[in-house]
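Quick illustration for those who missed Monday's session on complexes.
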Amino acid sequence: MMPRAKLKARKVEAAEALVGARPLPESNVWMRRAREAAHARVLDMGLPTKRDEYWRFTDPRRLTAAEAEAGKLHDTQGEAPVFDAFDRLKIVFTNGVFDAEASDALEMDGVEIAPLAEAAAADLHWARDIYGVLEQRGQNPVERPLASLNTAYAREGMFIRVTGNPERPISLIYNRSAEDGDAIVHHVIRVEAGAEVTILENGPVAARFNQVMEADIAEGATLHHIRAQGRDHERAGTAHLFARLGAEAQLKSFTLTANGSLIRNEAVIWLDGADGSAHIAGATVGDGAFHHDDTVFINHAAPRCESRQVFKKVLRHGAVGVFQGKILVDQVAQLTDGYQISQALLLDEDAQFLAKPELEIYADDVQCSHGSTSGEIDKSQLFYLRTRGVAEDEAKLLLVLAFLAEALEEIADQGFADDLRDRLEAWLKRRG
Amino acid sequence: MLEIKNLHCELEEDSEVKILNGLSLTVNPGEVHAIMGPNGSGKSTLSYVLSGRDGYEVTEGSATLEGADLLDMEPEERAAAGLFLAFQYPVEIPGVGNMTFLRTAVNAQRKARGMEELSAGEFLKLVRAKAKELQIDPDMLKRPVNVGFSGGEKKRNEILQMAMLEPKMCILDETDSGLDVDAMKLVSDGVNALRDAERSFLVITHYQRLLNHIKPDVVHIMSEGRIIKTGGPELALEVEENGYGDLLAEAQA
Ligand SMILES: Nc1ncnc2c1ncn2[C@@H]1O[C@H](COP(=O)(O)OP(=O)(O)OP(=O)(O)O)[C@@H](O)[C@H]1O
Ligand SMILES: [Mg+2]
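Prediction with magnesium ion bound:
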C-alpha cells in the first residue's frame, strides 16, 4: 500500500498537471471569484483515483485524462428522441454548446431563463448564492473534485429561476454531432417558494461530458427532474446533482441510463427544512462494455423529512453496475423517514453489480431502511408465465420491465413514465 | 385427450430421487378424473412434468395431448396446445399487473392458434364478466399478479385464468385447499361451467368434499409415483372414511 501522504501528493500533482496552467473563462466579478475558489479546490483536493474510498468500484481515469476518448456516434435509425411527443420549452445544446437557433425563445410565464454566458456577464443576484456554492458544500464529507473542475471551467449551462408554475416543462436537449470532444455544462436552478417546475434532460451530450446541476428548492416548492441518458455507447461522463430543499419542498429526480461506456451520476441532497421530501431514482440497462455508477448522498438536516432512493439495474454481457448510497440523519432530524433500495437483475453470469449502501444516523426517533440485492430472473415466475402461453422471450421482457417498474413509479407524471417505459421496452426488444 | 404411459421421472440434479415410477392414465374428452394420494406421492410433480417445468428428467414413458407429444414441447407450446395447470401455489409477480398478465396470455395463445388478438375493449368486457362470475373484486385485476392476494383469492385467480384461456385439458392441483365453503362452491361452479364434451379435467385433491361439487367420472389413487388403484367416485368416499392405509397395504400385497 502506498502511504496516504504519497497518494494525496499524486492526486494533487495530477490536478496541477491537468488544470494548473489552464486559464479560467472570462467572467464578471462574482463568477470569477466562484471559479477561482473552485479551481483552488481542485488543486487542493487533487484528482480522484481508484484508491479513493468512493471510486473503488469505478475507475475515474477516463474522466480525468487530458484528452477525451473519441467515440462513434450512435445511429438512431430514425427513432424519435425521448420526450419528443410532449409540448415543452426546448433548449438545445450541440456538442455541449448552447444552440440558440435550434432552441425555443427562452421565455415562458413563471420562469426566467438565461444562458450561462449571459449570466456570467450580467449580475444575476439569485444565482450568486448558488453557483459553486452548493457544489462547494457538497465537498464535505466526501470530495467531488470533478464537480469543482466543472464550476471552474463551465462556459455552458442554463440559469433558470422559477417564480410560478410554468405551463410547459423545460427540456434540455443535448445533441451530439462530433465524435470527439469534451462538454462541460453547469446549470443553476432556483425554484422560488411555492413554485413548481419540471426539467427534462436528454441526449448523449458529447464523447465525454462533465455536467453539474445545482438546484435550490425553496419552501414549499417542487422540482421534477427527469433525465434520459442514452443511445451512444461510446461516451464517458459524470453528472452531479446538488440540491438543497427548504421546508415542505419536494424533489423528484429520475434518471434512465441506457448504454454509455462509463457514466458516473452523483446526487447530493440536503433536506434543510422540516417536512421536505426528496426522491432520487434510476433505471439502468447495460449490455456489454458498460459501466454505470450511481453515487447518492442524502442528508436529513431537519425534522420530519422523507427520502427515497430507488435504483434498478439490468445488466448483461459484462456490464457493470455500481450503487453507492448514503442516508445521513443529523441529530435534529427527528421523525426522518428514509428508504433506500438498490437492485440488479443480472441476465447472465458475466454481469456484475457492486453496491455500498450506508446509513449514518444521529437522531433517535427515525425510520430508515435500506436493502440491496442482485439476482437473476425468477425461474418460477418465468415458468408460471410460460404455462399461460407467453413465449419465453416475451415472458422475460415482462419480468425485466416489472423489475424496473418500482423505479419508474418515482416519476410523478404518467405520460413521461410511459414514454420512458416504452424506450426501455424497445431497448430490451432490440437486444432480444 | 390426455394419455400418460409408464411415466418415470427423477430430479435432474439428483437422479437418486425418483418421483414418478411408471405412472399411466388416460383421460378421455369430456371426462373428469380425480387424483388423490398421500403427501409427497408425486401429484404436483406429475402436473409440473406435464406442463414442462425445468428440473425433472423423464427417463421413461410418454405423455401425449390429443396425440401430440407433450414432453417434446416448450411450456408455452403445451399451453397453446390446450393444456392448463392451476397451480397448487400460484406464483406472485410483483410489477406485472394482473390485467396486463391476463391480456398478454390470452393474446399470446390466440396468436399461437392463428386467431386475431382481442382488442383492449373486447378483452376488458370479457375479463370483467368472468371476474364477476367468480366474484373477483375488480380491484384484484389492477393489482400485481397474486401479490398480496389471500390464499383463496389466488385460487380464484387461477380459475379466472382458466376461464379466459379456455384450455382443453385442465389440471387443477389442490385448487380447493385454502378455500372457504362459499369460495369452494364458486370455484366449483366456475369449473362446472367449463365442462363440456370436448374439455377434460384432472383434479388433484385431498378432500372428497370438492368432488361433491365437481363430480368425477374416475378417481385414481396415487402412491410413490404411480397409480395404485382406479375406480369410480366411491373410491374417494372410501379414502375419506378410512384413509390410505388399507389401499396402500393392498397395493403392496
Ligand atoms: N425440486 C424438488 N427437489 C427436491 N425434492 C422434490 C422436488 N420436487 C419434488 N420433490 C419431492 O418429490 C416428492 C413428491 O412431491 P410432490 O410435490 O409432487 O408431492 P404431492 O403429491 O404433490 O404432495 P402434496 O400432497 O403434499 O402436495 C416429495 O418427496 C418431494 O419432496
Ligand atoms: Mg402437491
